[in-house]
UniProtKB/TrEMBL annotation:
One Pfam family it belongs to: BPL_LplA_LipB
Keyword Ligase belongs to the record: yes
Classification via NCBIfam families: birA_ligase
Organism per entry: Isoptericola variabilis (strain 225)
Protein name in the entry: biotin--[biotin carboxyl-carrier protein] ligase
Gene3D superfamilies, alphabetized: 2.30.30.100, Bira Bifunctional Protein, Domain 2
Any one GO MF annotation of this record: biotin--[biotin carboxyl-carrier protein] ligase activity
EC identifiers of the protein: 6.3.4.15
């Protein structure tokens, strides 16, 4: 399927300083994983300026949580990794992937799709019928954040834009096109995502890393499809499984779940929404 490439020169005019927030923007035709490539680059170039972004027109081995990989059709998705160097306490870095999810959700909004968030940062859109683990939603975007040497964080975002049903990797996924988006301009989505992300991180910095004081915790909670929902959390490592009601997001970005044995804190793992009787 023939799809339009990104207008790189126009994007650089809009996103690079002084007009925009980025110190640099690279767009490549193909990459196994923009996040892997950018993490490797930051290790080779410790002084690499931030914020900066690496975009791939075709990502063939994208990485998600728990080492999952996927391929997106050429020019059908927005696959970008952003290098940030947030000037916040280390304890506040847990909010970076959450506000990245918030930024991706807002970009989806601007495409005319009502987006919600599944903790920590999966971007969901309403869809029927219900599916296991997501309920009345499908996943349209995912975020992966990795800390790199020198106080940096690489935030990778994969946003499904124009995929057809046959091009989606799993039945729980969807695209903006399938969700009824009013526009599918990947360039406009990239501009929105980058501006929203850098603005949110700037607010977090101004508040000394306090997401509540910055207003980001409230904005995240208002958009959450997880809070107030009964969930099953498959904890990372040998942490086991717990079930309960997702009560709130803690000060460090962890998910607090109210179980039959009291409150438990989930810092990493897969969280599934459970159907209510």
């Amino acid at each position: 399927m023939d799809r339009a490439p990104l207008a790189v020169d126009a994007l650089r005019r809009e996103l690079l300083t002084p007009a925009g927030p980025l110190a640099w923007l690279d767009v490549v035709e193909t990459s196994p994983s923009t996040s892997t490539a950018l993490v490797e680059r930051t290790r080779a170039e410790p002084g690499l300026a931030a914020p900066g972004a690496l975009v791939a027109e075709h990502q063939v081995a994208g990485r998600g949580r728990a080492g999952r990989t996927w391929e997106t059709p050429a020019r059908a998705a927005l696959t970008v990794s952003v290098l940030l160097r947030p000037h916040v306490p280390a304890a506040a870095l847990g909010w970076v992937p959450l506000v990245a999810g918030l930024a991706a959700a807002r970009a989806a909004d601007e495409a005319g799709v009502e987006a919600r968030l599944k903790w920590p940062n999966d971007v969901l859109v309403p869809a029927a019928p219900d599916v296991e683990g997501l309920g009345p939603y499908r996943k349209v975007a995912g975020v992966l954040a990795e800390v790199v040497p020198g106080g940096g964080v690489v935030v990778g975002v994969g946003l499904n834009v124009a995929q057809t049903v046959d091009e989606l990797p799993v039945p729980t996924a969807t695209s903006l096109a399938l969700a009824g988006a009013t526009h599918l301009d990947r360039g406009a989505l990239l501009v929105s995502l980058v501006r929203e992300l850098t603005s949110a991180v700037g607010r977090l910095e101004e508040a000394g890393g306090d997401a509540r004081a910055a207003g980001l915790a409230r904005e995240y909670a208002d958009r959450s499809a997880t809070l107030g929902t009964r969930v099953r959390a498959e904890l990372a490592g040998a942490g086991g499984v717990l079930e309960g009601v997702a009560a709130r997001v803690a000060d460090d970005g962890a998910l607090v779940v109210e179980t039959a044995d009291g409150e438990r804190v989930v810092t990493a793992g897969d969280v599934h929404h459970l159907r209510t009787a």
